[in-house]
Sequence to fold (504 residues):
Amino acid sequence: MDERLEETFVSLAKGAPGQRSIWWRGTWWSRSCLMELVEGCETTLAQSGFGEGQRLALLLPNSPVNLALCLAVWRLGGTVVPLNVQAGEKEILRCIRHGDVFGAFLCKGFEPLAEALAQHGVPSAVTPLEGPIPDMNGRRGAAEDPETAVIFFTSGTTGSPKAVCITHGNIRANVEASLHHFTELRDNEVFLNALPNFHTLGFTVCGMLPMLSGMGQALVPNFMPAEATLEVMRTAGVSVAVTVPAMVALLQGAVARGALPPQDLHILISGGDRLPPRIATRSAPLLGVPVLEGYGLTETSPVVAVNPSYAKNKPGTVGPLIPGYRARILDAEGKDVAQGEEGTLWLQGPSVTPGYFRRPDLTGSRIRDGWFDTGDMVKIDEDGYLSIVGRVSDIIIVGGFNVYPQEVESMLQEHPSVREAAVIGVPNPSLGEVVKAYVVPQAGSRTTPRDLVAFCRERLSHYKVPRMIEFVEELPKSSIGKVLNRELRKRAQEETVCSDSTSS
Fold:
């Protein structure tokens, strides 16, 4: 086990009885109380046969037992595999099989899933969210490197799950660099831990960062309804909220409808997806603080860059790289671009994953000579601030010109009748591709697709203007509210097939 994490366990065990660690359903748990649960989980797992190099799947909401199981597994030299219990039986089974897990823990209400897992030979147990955990007759898969702390399954832009290995050293390096970089933090902060902890942003920044730095955290098993989360923030005295844009928008909406804003919040950070300008401008009036935008990936544990303070905030950017990273921005030929020019971001540093679990082919395709290909198009200004242009895989090529969906989406969302927008490329016989936009209109809007095309034509180059605009009730999104462009491309392809079939 990583020596610094072992030091953390010692400090947890020696925590003063009244020292706050986690807030859970109206009560603060002391550090020693949490450590008692960790030790109980460790004993039960060891008696069940779990040992070094094994992997344990956690299909649990944010809760004391979820956090305690992570620490207990690490003390035994194992690896945790956090999964989304709402992902569906087929997807869960695929991840569990690839992860070759010892077993899985679920919470009350998911007994049918536990039965389904048993039918496929996967041991599981249902545990109370406050513990103690029950015994489990697990299965011992092939042991792997005990330095691997977590395996995160992420579909990225492809839809095919990738098992990202994150080591103890990765987590420690990312936490320490983030703490050094982000100068707004004070002693005794209380973090909101409402992002799902099967996602790296929630797991590391909302859970492990306050745990490893001795700060408090308010555990929220379900973010919705936003009014309930606001009540938790007020009751627990949440001072730092690390969120995604969808969460910020929902909190703003709740306050606009009459909910009381948080009283102690002095830092609000958004990551996980681009931050629409409209959400950014509404933050201070409704929530009391502006939003600081950051950027990261599962493969980087996750933080890569963040605006370091309100005094040094550059809206529209995700801030400078946190300490420890080396970056290269390369063109399509693999050559370094000039400062301020766009290119693909490659990273090197102690937070970068060593690779993908049992996928040397995928590891070799993304990590070359120690450099990780993020797949993101970026540019860096003279002050070292990073701007995300878009995903390389999302670039639309119209008559030989590159169109970045994010630019068109941002323009559409400046229209007062547009609530959300997502842009993809669709095949065109003469231009190769053209821009298509899916738009969620504001309630009661009478704006037409023609109106929006005219709006864009006045503000964008001709090749960036959407040729097609389709109004939809909602956009397909991931578990953290990120728009799934691959689902929109699939939908557009199916619509084209149906159209061809009808015409023939």
